[in-house]
Amino acid sequence: MSGQRPPVPEQDPEPDHEAVARKILLDQLTGQARSRHELADRLARRNVPDDVAEPLLDRFTEVGLIDDEAFARAWVDSRRRTRGLARPALAQELRRKGVANETVQVVLGEVDSEDEEESARLLVRKKLRSLRNVEETVAARRLTGMLARKGYSAGVSYSVVRQELGASDWGSDA
């Protein structure tokens, strides 16, 4: 043996941006759907050049791995169930996630007004339990404020709160 080291292969000074971008996209899509805009932002933060990112995003969209409409439907369903959000609040969240206005309108158009009112009722009934020791006007103000923060219109909020306070025999156990 001559004691010589084997030649060290030359390292590629430029990382394979496409492979890096593909891994980022697949990692981001594992476990939950994301909007195209969110994924594009993630690639930009990881310094993936636009000329690499855009064709990959297009390809992922073409094969159905990125689908803003499906993402929006899942987001709306989840946020309505877990947070009780109304259409205006959902629209704001979807736009913040980069979902196109047309897609937002289509998906939110599928939300039934009666279901939305029932969600408001459930929120009010749940919150009413913790408001038993306050005056009715204070409870009404807090309940309508809660619904407003969740995106419910003033009309729906006042109607639901008035009906639920009336149905709850407010103050009968005082």
Description:
This protein is mainly alpha-helical. The chain folds into three domains: 17-66, Arc Repressor Mutant, subunit A (Orthogonal Bundle), CATH 1.10.10; 68-111; 113-174. The protein contains nine helices and no strands. The protein has helices at residues 17-29, 36-45, 50-62, 68-83, 87-96, 101-109, 113-128, 136-149, 154-167. The longest helix is centred in the middle third of the chain and has 16 residues, at 68-83. The chain is elongated.
Question: What is the overall shape?
Answer: elongated
Average pLDDT rating: 89
* Strand runs, count: 0
Major sheet, described briefly? none
Span between termini = 97 Å
What is the string of helix and strand elements?
HHHHHHHHH
SS-based class: mainly alpha
Number of helices: 9
The level of helicity is 55-70%
Domain module tally: 3
Radius of gyration: 25 Å
Uncertain residue segments:
none
% residues in beta strands: under 5%
Helices and strands in order:
Blueprint (H helix, E strand, L loop, with lengths): L16 H13 L6 H10 L4 H13 L5 H16 L3 H10 L4 H9 L3 H16 L7 H14 L4 H14 L7
Helix pairs in contact: 1-3, 2-3, 4-6, 5-6, 7-9, 8-9
